[in-house]
Write a structure and sequence with these properties.
Layout: H1 5-30, H2 40-68, H3 73-95, H4 99-124
Helix pairs in contact: 1-2, 1-3, 2-3, 2-4, 3-4
């Protein structure tokens, strides 16, 4: 029975939704109807939202399958918690924070995606 993954799915979807709202508000504030209008702030908002979505969906699917494969709740919490922190750091770094926060968030995201995929394969084989 899946018990841990839905919590992280909900939290990560909230992050994606907040980034979508930020994109819409930025678009309205800058009066940009389509695209980025050549404005770096708009480009950052668009990419922060898209990048989060690009990584959140595959990760949640992997986390779900990992939990289904018999992983312990503690492992699910660690993977989910670290991934949430990585995505928050990445979003903040992309929108207005220091570049090192963006780089750290992106690196931790990649490491967790590979580690989770390999952990799932280990459980299945």
């Amino acid at each position: 029975m899946v018990t841990e993954t839905p919590v992280f799915a909900a939290l990560l979807l909230l992050l994606v939704t907040l980034l979508a709202v930020n994109t819409s508000l930025t678009r309205m504030r800058l009066q940009i109807r389509l695209g980025d209008g050549g404005d770096e702030r708009m480009t950052r908002a668009i990419r922060a939202h898209a990048n989060a979505f690009e990584h959140v969906l595959p990760f949640v699917l992997l986390l779900f399958f990992y939990e289904q494969s018999g992983a312990c709740a503690t492992a699910i919490r660690w993977f989910g918690g670290l991934f949430l922190a990585a995505r928050l750091g990445h979003a903040i770094g992309m929108l207005r924070g220091p570049f090192n926060l963006l780089r750290f968030g992106a690196s931790l995201t990649a490491v967790l995606e590979v580690w989770l995929a390999l952990s799932l394969l280990r459980n299945l084989l």
